[in-house]
């Protein structure tokens, strides 16, 4: 597929200032009349033809300033509509199109899900509604009239504020919405359908009264309360933390069941995957509640970082996504435990972004070329993008950061901005040159930071040598390294380092030497505290030194990291004596602190994943060997820690009749108790299965029930099959719960899983047309079952490849996303690598592949 390049960016030849839409909803023939106020762009070059983007549209009418455009004056092809000789002055274009929302399986543009009409326009779906300059630097004020049969769509929602509504004849009605804020087409949305709602008022710090509402399938209103509460808390927090107030009279969130991603920040009308809205204790886990809170916040925060200030072009995607992830992470950290949340952020960065950055799909946080933009909504753009913003704050300090953010919003409000505009705001308020820091946006790959220390007892001096290395050629990056020294009894607070006075050293050269004075004993360095930069750290420490950090460091992140590092080394090179020592250190840690901070303790007990172990290997990967080694380590620890785990289990048992609360402290207690159960079961599968079965029967919420089932699912036998069957029956009519059940079965690391998945594809609740179902069954398998996905006989690869082929024409975005599971195929040992190559080439041989899949395929095979 042809590449679009950043260097080729040119301002649009024409602008569209106002858009008046009249949308008459119909299941098969929805008619859209678009009145577009066009004018030549003074900053553009409006001397050629005018090309309006269009995709899969039927053109019904075309008028220019009220007169039909003669057929000879325009042409329509697969990419859109071209006016050969557009006026060189402002003019009105009326475009009438027709679309079939029921036949729209791509879930881009206007489509129907469970009978509800909804839209998805980012990145380029608006062109599937009408012909348009579908690019984010063309910003217009929209007025939308929606008409439908009242019975089919009693609720009609659009962007902005409601202006009027009323009947049309006997059985139809209409509503008009007006959005005063100019916006790019990707933020356009309409919804029509039978929906129930919950709502709550909010008064902004500017005194505006806002009605917030969450719309869901009728009868599910009781499941929308948590999301609504998260909306209110997000509004409060953005005022407090960033001085950003909401700017419309209504804020609506709509949950739909078929959605390509998590959610979408359309102006005033966020549309959500129902997985990230609906929650009651019986069906949602603690993780679901946390995700709902985070994603509601994320989409709401886009109202400023994305909507009021949008992106000039799609190369700038991190400008809104990285920044908004950073903002939602800060929000969740304030709502929950900051260190625990930070560990979660880093775990997901390492699970998703590090492998991406090390494989064939690697790209800079700001890519410089793309074939299909929808393939660039990646962990790199989102999560590494957020890490860059975090580093910027570390670099300039929180007060200057806040001042820079205020400046960015003030200078760019109502504009389509670039990464340069973002950095310029911080350069202005600090007077600093940020051009070296800006390299983070351009350089792909995860840097390595290596460290070596030497202690001079006589001089009471510790010297630390730091060096950075990047996988690609170029000048050094600016890496903030938060650090400290830890002695046998705890942090050495008396030690001083002139170049890291505030505990942060800025490594902006290839290498540097730091000198600590007044170091009273040989220290262990604690580097990259709070994970101050998205790099890989090479620091040779003994287990004993690492375990000192676990016991004594003041930085919770590095305490957790130390335990992870010891465990990782034991997975890669098993050793019984060292495992005993590790178990003892964990035991001491649990005795001292488990009950004081259960959420943190649960993370310490969670060993690095098989994917992390694979990622840390230097040679070819054999997933079976990694699985065996990790399992053996867990079994060993489970046996060694059994008495402690039993005590934790008892101490954290909920009081009889206690009701469920999703708050972080309660969730932390459940997390630790369930982690203890799982580790016990690894040590003693028979006793573990029995205990897990009792816990399954006693569970009063989905968190505990699913955790118990997950433990049982790892232990082959009749008990497992019975437990799985009864769970499946109990939730036969709860698709979001069945997704958990599908995922759990898809990740069983056994040969029989392939047959299980084949059978589950025939389950009445499974549907290839619903992305959540596909992600639960096939996505979980490919991303969360390394031994079976990468089977040497190729059958695991085949399962995923067949799904990609089967889905490609119906929903190319989901097909392409599934295909990214092959990203690390070249690192596998030879037989598996060959099997993967065969499957990839098999997909390549399919005629008429979508651009989405072809793009991922070409890059994966390169
Ligand atoms: N901006 C959307 C993602 C759109 C993805 C288009 N393929 C959701 C978000 O990041 O908030
Ligand atoms: Zn976003």
From TrEMBL:
Belongs to the peptidase M1 family. Pfam families: DUF3458, DUF3458_C, Peptidase_M1, Peptidase_M1_N. Residues 543-861 form the Peptidase M1 alanyl aminopeptidase C-terminal domain. Residues 445-538 form the Peptidase M1 alanyl aminopeptidase Ig-like fold domain. Its cofactor is Zn(2+). It comes from the Bacteria. The keyword Hydrolase applies. GO terms for molecular function: alanyl aminopeptidase activity. Residues 226-439 form the Peptidase M1 membrane alanine aminopeptidase domain. Residues 104-187 form the Aminopeptidase N-like N-terminal domain. The lineage of its organism: Bacteria, Pseudomonadati, Pseudomonadota, Alphaproteobacteria, Hyphomicrobiales. Keywords: Aminopeptidase, Hydrolase, Metal-binding, Metalloprotease, Protease, Zinc. NCBIfam families: pepN_proteo. This is Aminopeptidase N. Its EC number is 3.4.11.2. It catalyses: Release of an N-terminal amino acid, Xaa-|-Yaa- from a peptide, amide or arylamide. Xaa is preferably Ala, but may be most amino acids including Pro (slow action). When a terminal hydrophobic residue is followed by a prolyl residue, the two may be released as an intact Xaa-Pro dipeptide.
